[in-house]
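re: the backbone from monday

yeah here it is again, tokenized this time
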């Protein structure tokens, strides 16, 4: 495998610092929901809520607060 191909296998190459426990838990839950074949935002939000993983403020996820949290985490 070429060096170029290997660099693209780093799943966190754009993450500026080590992931927090919250980020690790959220990313794992997102991967779990995607693993069920769900690939749309309403399904993802429903899946996260179904897993019992709440938004940072303790409420259920909505399309709006999920988008806001992804924006915040992407800064």
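seq for it, each position gets an aa:
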């Amino acid at each position: 495998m070429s060096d170029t191909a290997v660099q693209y296998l780093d799943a966190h190459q754009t993450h500026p610092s080590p992931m927090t426990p919250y980020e690790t838990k959220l990313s794992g839950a997102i991967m779990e929901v995607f693993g069920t074949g769900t690939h749309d935002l309403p399904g993802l939000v429903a899946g996260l809520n179904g897993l019992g993983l709440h938004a940072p403020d303790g409420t259920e996820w909505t399309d709006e607060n999920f988008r806001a949290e992804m924006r915040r985490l992407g800064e």
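The chain has one domain: 18-73. The chain has a mean pLDDT of 87.
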